[in-house]
Specification:
The chain is built from no helices and 13 strands. The chain is mainly beta. The chain has a single domain, classed as Beta Barrel (Thrombin, subunit H). A 6-stranded antiparallel β-barrel has the order 1-2-5-13-11-10. Strand 8 and strand 9 form a beta hairpin.
Length: about 140
């Protein structure tokens, strides 16, 4: 069964998610500095919209420029984000995993070879009838 998804745009956005590396007892592992050891995986969302903004904040003596961006991702009626992996295999990314938003503040987005850190959890937006319409992500560039 194919779920129809409304195309938001004509861009590809990568979602980079980290998963903890577990030991033989299914407990998270840590490096020598006590940081959790994670493995990253990327899924690609087509028919998305990605827009970079460059807001400037002026104070009396300092001008701060940050490169913020937002992504609007398509979502299916079952609240999954249709995506593909690096081998072009379909992946259905649930909006909620284990009671948490999957694309959360720990995730990163990638677009046109640039990396963006999520600023808060993604938001599932609904249409006037309460049906899932799109997923909104706010992020900030991390490699400038």
């Amino acid at each position: 069964m194919t779920t129809e998804v409304f195309p938001i745009g004509d861009q590809r956005v990568g979602i980079i998610l980290d998963a903890a590396v577990l030991n033989g007892d299914d407990e998270p592992t840590f490096d020598e500095l006590g940081a959790p050891v994670v493995t990253s995986s990327t899924v690609w969302v087509d028919r998305a919209l990605f827009e970079e903004q460059t807001p400037t904040e002026n104070t009396d003596m300092i001008t701060t420029t940050g490169i913020k961006a937002f992504a609007i991702l398509p979502v299916a009626a079952d609240q999954t984000i249709p995506a593909i992996d690096d081998d072009d295999n379909p992946v259905s990314l649930p909006f909620i995993t284990d009671g948490r938003v999957t694309v959360n503040a720990n995730a990163r987005l990638t677009h046109n070879g640039l990396s963006y850190q999520m600023r808060g959890d993604a938001v599932l937006e609904q249409d006037l009838r309460g049906r899932p319409n799109h997923v909104f992500c706010l992020c900030e560039r991390t490699d400038h």
